[in-house]
Specification:
The protein is α+β, with helices and mostly antiparallel strands. The protein contains 3 helices and 4 strands; from the N terminus they run αββββαα. The protein has a single domain (16-153), classed as SecB-like (Bacterial Protein-export protein SecB). It has a 4-stranded antiparallel sheet. β2 (45-57) and β3 (62-75) form a beta hairpin. α2 (98-127) crosses α3.
């Protein structure tokens, strides 16, 4: 009986594990360089979005993933506002092979963080008295696949830091 219990305990210890530990804002910024004059102009915005992720291994099996959303909105040729959020999370991730770990950190974790980052940006922009951005969902799996393909073509290998 104890052999069965030991085997079950060993299998449980070696089974893949994923747990969200904490979600937090790492950095937040907002600039409206042409206010208040920008509010008196006809509003015809163009939106530029830059999205980036990075990850860092912490102690034991903990990892920090940071999703950065940078938005530049122009009204005509003038910058109406620039907003940026670095939404971060700490994740406990154990017993994954290298490919699964890379995918988890590069696509799965950013997918968890995105709704929080989108809400933080919308809140920031509306506090600046501009219309909410309402960013569309992002397919992080597709972005991850594109990045893997780019790395393969460049002869690089994905690394987990």
């Amino acid at each position: 009986m104890t052999d069965q219990q030991n085997t079950a305990a060993n299998e449980e210890e070696s089974a893949p594990q994923f747990s969200l530990q904490r979600i937090y804002v790492r950095d937040l910024s907002f600039e409206a360089p042409k206010s208040p004059a920008i509010f008196r102009q006809q509003w015809e915005p163009s939106v530029g979005l830059d999205l980036n992720t990075r990850q860092k291994a912490l102690e034991n099996d903990f990892h920090e993933v940071v999703l950065t959303l940078s938005v530049t909105v122009k009204n005509g040729e003038e910058v109406a506002f620039i907003a940026e959020v670095q939404q971060a999370g700490i994740f406990l991730i154990k017993n994954l092979d290298a490919a699964s770990m890379s995918h988890t950190l590069g696509a799965f974790c950013p997918n968890i963080l995105f709704p929080y980052a989108r809400e933080a940006l919308d809140s920031l922009v509306t506090r600046g008295s501009f219309p909410a951005l309402m960013l569309a969902p992002v397919n992080f799996d597709a972005l991850y696949a594109q990045e893997l393909q780019r790395m393969q073509e460049a002869g690089e290998t994905p690394t987990v830091q």
